[in-house]
Amino acid sequence: MIKIISDSTAYLPKEFIEKNDITVIPLHVLYMGEEFDEGLPGTYDAFFESFTKTKIFPKTSQPSLEDFVKAYNKVIDEGNEAIVFTISSSLSGCNSVANLAKNECKDPSKISIVDSGSCGQVVCGYAMEVIEKVKEGKSREEIVEYIERLKENSTICFVPDSLEYLYKGGRIGKVSATLGTILQLKPILTFKKGVLSCAKKVFGANKAISELFAMIPKTFKRLFVIHIANTKNYDTLKSKVVTTFPNIEAVEGEMGPVIASHIGPAIGVCWIAE
Predict the structure, then answer these.
(1) Whole-model pTM?
(2) pLDDT of 270
């Protein structure tokens, strides 16, 4: 049987993990002198309550080699094989560790590792696709090839609440951050195939939300509406999803401390598309 292993930045819902017997390997967060596992959606409230007030950026680190080896060997010992998803290698060394661990496990031929080139609910969407393909009787190799095709057109888009976090993270200069805040400038950030870029800059949250929806392709297979720290504009975004796509059940998703360390509180959408 084909099992799914993912790092914590896929932000898979607990119920989904339990129903499909998925193994989640957490990244680690160092924040205000304390180190902890990132955890699952629904467990981030205390962190964000502090994070949004102190505006101190956490540091993050990938799981250990032993974490991955243990997960692989458990799958192999049970007579199964695994598809492993990691956060984009452009953001973390997690994928490198996952590949090193493959060479150390009992049977590397049973393990396929996918660099998602992304993070968050895009990876959740890939996991959902794996489950469907397994039910169709597809092989591990066929499923991985299919996921690689999906990566070409699957995207996650963010609208950060504040430019201050991007400045502290070293992604924009102080002058840009200050002027953008004064002018209520909202960047629309896209993350696709391992590249974080600014697709557009617009004035005001409402315009930013409208632009987000204009970017969604008509051919999407799965749509997610997401947030970091449950910001004040999230309800507006959800309402627009329902209005714009009345016949589609978009999945709500919460992202955690690791991705927050890159962009701060934000709202967004992501999609899986062929």
Answers:
(1) 0.91
(2) 93
